[in-house]
Amino acid sequence: MATSSDIPNTSLPRPATLRALDFEAALGEVLHHAAGLRGSSAATIEEVPLLESAGRVLALAIAADRDQPPFDRSTRDGFAVRATEFSAGGWLRIAGQVRAGEVWSGPPLANDEAIEIMTGAPLPAGADAVAMVEHIELDGGNVRAQQGRHLMAGENVVAQGSEARAGEIVVAVGSVIGAAEIALAATAGQSTLTVSGRPSVAIVATGDELVELHETPDSRQIRNSNGYALSTLVKLAGALPYRLAIARDVREELLQRIAEARRHDLILFSGGVSMGKYDLVEEVLAELGAEFFFTGVKMQPGKPVVFGRLPERREAGETLPERYFFGLPGNPVSTQVTFHCFVEPFLRMLLGADASGPRFAQATLAHDVEGKPGLTRMLPARLDSDVRHASVKLVGWQGSGDLAANARANCYAVLPPDRTEFREGDVISILLR
Ligand code: AMP
Ligand code: MG
């Protein structure tokens, strides 16, 4: 019987279903499968200190612990008054002053009175509005409206509980935590937050030409930069990266690495998914019974990208659950673009995050560009924006291996497959990263 290493590469089975999908259909597949796992990471929740929660996904809602604001709050420096009396224009006697952090302790405001008030202070009883200091005239101990100034009841006051009632949810489960959410948690007195556990992601870089950072590449070799790029992208997406050892383009090594990798929640391969004779990733996965949802996407860069699932497997008395995997093309820009398009949304869904799709925005094209019919192009580009305009221009590049051009870019210009020409001034989508 031939041992597995005797089997020439060319005799390995290709995946049963070879499918190259349109970009949207491919993304639909990914989101469909991810939806089945939605929030599976939230099953293992963690409580983390508030200041360590940025970037995590909320697993337990934040509720207001009291009415917000907790009292009728002045939004201006000025005078607390009765709106009708003030608007009538007569002089009002200044009965006192209330600052932020104080409560007016005098008798309720009378018709012909005003109380000086600072932004953030509670409105004194009897008053129903605040006249801005910019809109009044003073004379000794009296104040009145400037000519023609009127005030409505409730003006320059935020009513108690109008932002949130005590017990009301102010940040929902699935929110990605940033400063806005942390500020609300702090307002509610929460020093910790309960967040989704992080999915663990195995990263398998494949390729005979690869060496690790501690090695010195000879003239034929290149360093495994994808392992580092993918680790960073996984981390930024809120998951935990595990870089496995490089796999040579040899069946045994791939099998070994897959056995290790399937202990993690998701497997990412880099390289070995193109049409070359030594691109064995799909073949080895097919041999293990993998199901392929697509084995290519009509996009550029990133065309060879693969998405599939390894079946449940019994091994040494242990049941290893089914595992999803992505085979990302080895060319470094392709690796990163396909990560943003497919892997990031998949991970966000696992985490139970509310916004999961790739992050597209719109910008005006700064120059003419040619599209490629039938391919969704995502080209390294530079977004420049000011208060009125967002403009995008392609950075010159040498193709999908050009990491330097990729680093000069800050987004990818998206050229849909149904047009061949894009003109300066056209509004196009961009993929943010
Ligand atoms: P592949 O998709 O395996 O055909 O790889 C395409 C090209 O991508 C290779 O020729 C390498 O130049 C490059 N490449 C593959 N893997 C990596 C990696 N881990 N880090 C950096 N470049 C890579
Ligand atoms: Mg390769």
Shape category: elongated
Largest beta-sheet characterization: 6 strands, mixed
| Bound compounds | adenosine monophosphate, magnesium ion
Q: Compute the number of helices.
A: 8
Rg result: 31 Å
Helix content: 10-25%
How far the N terminus sits from the C terminus, by CA atoms, comes to: 51 Å
Structural class: alpha/beta
| Strand order across the largest sheet | 8-5-7-6-10-9
Integer average pLDDT: 94
Which stretches are low in confidence, meaning pLDDT under 50 for 5 or more residues running? 1-13
Number of strands: 32
- Please report which band the strand proportion falls in: under 5%, 5-15%, 15-25%, 25-35%, 35-45% or over 45%: 25-35%
Which helices and strands appear, and what pairs or packs with what?
Elements: E1 20-21, H1 23-36, E2 45-49, E3 62-63, E4 73-74, E5 78-81, H2 83-88, E6 92-98, E7 113-117, E8 129-132, E9 136-139, E10 142-145, E11 157-158, E12 169-171, H3 179-187, E13 192-196, E14 200-205, E15 210-211, E16 222-223, H4 225-236, E17 240-243, H5 251-261, E18 266-270, H6 281-287, E19 291-294, E20 296-297, E21 299-300, E22 306-310, E23 313-315, E24 318-320, E25 323-328, H7 332-350, E26 360-365, E27 369-370, E28 376-385, E29 390-394, H8 403-408, E30 411-415, E31 421-422, E32 427-432
Adenosine monophosphate is lined by residues 205, 207, 210, 222, 224-227, 270-272, 274, 276, 279, 329-332, 401.
